[in-house]
Design goal:
The chain is an alpha/beta fold and 166 residues long. The chain has 2 domains: 124 residues, NAD(P)-binding Rossmann-like Domain (Rossmann fold); 36 residues, no CATH class. The chain has 4 helices and 9 strands, in the order E-H-E-E-E-E-H-E-H-E-H-E-E. The strands form 2 sheets. It has a 7-stranded mixed β-sheet, sandwiched between helices. The chain has a two-stranded antiparallel sheet with strand order 8-9. The longest helix has 13 residues. It is globular and about 50 Å long.
Length: 166
């Protein structure tokens, strides 16, 4: 597998690298992309240096199987379709596609079966608070849980998240 990480120098991007390394994820190539500000930096992976490349309109012409995106919604909206057009499956960690009804919103332990459906090349995931909650709440569904409503406060903004499990 040829893997790309978009936003590799950010906190989530570096966590992608850490988890891939910890799990011994098999790959043929691993390429890190970031903004022009981070291009040229070196990241260490499995004891080897990885040069960060600048993300641009031609980045996905290298032919990736999967791209893990965590560089913000605007970057995802611009570059995810380019990645898909080149044959890559995008797993997007931003808010860009979360509300798009044509893009599956996946938490693998809860609704991973949706991955077998046509994803049109992009898979979204919920925000961090929702992922943690649905993992636990999903286990309560057999006991009659119908609805949960809660509020989180993130980045100095109120963000109301309502989770309905029916």
């Amino acid at each position: 597998m040829k893997i790309a990480i978009v936003g590799a120098t950010g906190m989530v991007g570096s966590t992608f690298l850490t988890i891939l390394e910890e799990k011994g994820f098999p790959y043929e190539s691993l390429t890190c992309f970031a903004s022009s500000k981070s291009a040229g930096h070196t990241l260490m992976y499995q004891g080897q240096p990885l040069m960060v490349q600048e993300l641009n309109e031609h980045s996905f012409e290298l032919g990736f199987d999967y791209a893990l995106f965590s560089a913000g919604g605007q970057v995802s909206l611009k570059f995810a379709p380019l990645a898909v057009a080149s044959g890559c499956v995008v797993i997007d960690n931003s808010s860009a596609f979360r509300m798009d009804p044509s893009v599956p919103l996946i938490v693998p332990e809860v609704n991973g079966d949706l991955l077998s459906h046509d994803t049109q090349g992009i898979i979204a995931n919920p925000n961090c608070s929702t992922i943690q909650s649905v993992l636990v709440l999903n286990a309560l569904k057999p006991f009659g849980l119908k609805r949960v409503s809660y509020t989180t406060y993130q980045q100095s903004q109120d963000q109301v998240i309502k989770v309905y499990l029916i």
